[in-house]
Amino acid sequence: MYHDLNVELELFKDKKTRCELLETVSKFGYETIAVNETIDGRVSSELEPSIAGSLRSEDCIRDDKGLRLRGIRILSRVTVNLGNAQRVDFLRAAEAALRKFDVVAVCPTSERQLKLCMELDFINIVAFESSARTPFNIKPQLIASLEARGILVEVVYAPAIRDASLRRLVVVNGSSISRITNSKTLLISSGARHVLELRPARDVINLVHVLFKITETRAKSAINTAPQKILNKIEESQPSIRRSAAKRPASREHAKDSSNQKRRLA
Fold it and tell me: Choosing a second label site near 252 at 20 to 30 A (CA), which of 54, 91, 111, 259?
């Protein structure tokens, strides 16, 4: 089961691109996507998700051909760029609004901001701008604290596809973050703004393995086991998601494993 927890909102705004996105996600082997909207600076207490969170793909696709793409979970996500803010009290003040989203991410620019964000129990992901160097050194102690709180550190790959001049920077940042994190805290997402920027799950694993110089097991965990922890958290807090997950058909990979196990037992 593979998950992409960062697909940009512009891919979900109209029926045509939405259908194309879900067809591609299904073909590429993903079971869950999170539709992301980004906010720079302060968050309004009246903020609402642009999409209803915790959808299923069949809730979104009703075209004239009767196309039904079943089994894909669609979550709402917000990413808050903290900029040069010295304090993050405004996040706590906007907690009720942020909790309306299934996934909450922050993009800190200093170690102080990161430490303050770790005190907020509704933060799921720490993200860094891929088009610039990581703004501060992330110490192993911080990674241990993030892991203890169940917060993931995200690396996105789409900017390297979107702009060839950013490829080296994405690889440098990704390698650096991969080196200091572990399989429990590293999250790989697309950050795609266009369907052409998405890549099949197996290709992502291979690319991350080669470019970031980590094992295939760790690369797989970054789009499988690690994001699943966030999904488990959501399912625990939202009964409707838990019921939906329980009805979810087994993935091809899981079905294959089950079939092999039955043959071994026979």
Answer: 54
Strand ranges (DSSP E) for the chain?
2-8, 30-40, 55-56, 73-81, 103-107, 125-127, 152-156, 186-189
- 132 exposure class (CB count in 10 Å sphere: 0-12, 13-18, 19+): exposed
And the tokens for 27?
Answer: 């073909």
Is 54 exposed, middle or buried (CB count within 10 Å of its CB: 0-12, 13-18, 19+)? middle
- Max intra-chain CA distance, the chain: 63
Query: Is the per-residue pLDDT at 70 higher than 80?
Result: no
d(C-alpha 5, C-alpha 240), whole Å: 19
The C-alpha angle with vertex 134 and arms to 204 and 77, in degrees rounded to 5, equals 60
For residue range 104-117, list pLDDT tens digits in order.
999 998 999 999 99
Is residue 189 within 8 A of residue 6, CB to CB? The reply is: yes
- CA distance readout (Å), 109 to 85, 96, 122, 170, 206: 9, 24, 19, 17, 30
How many C-beta atoms lie closer than 10 Å to residue 259's C-beta?
A: 10
User: Residue 2 contacts by C-beta under 8 Å, 6 or more apart in sequence?
Assistant: 29, 30, 31, 201, 223, 224
| Cα–Cα dist 47/31, whole Å | 27
Give the Cα separation of 182 and 63 in Å (integer).
43
Give the predicted TM-score (pTM) of the model. 0.83
132-181, pLDDT tens digit by residue?
788 788 888 899 999 999 999 999 999 999 988 889 999 998 898 988 88
* Cβ atoms 207, 24 nearer than 8 A: no
Residue with tokens 């509704």, as numbered in its chain: 122
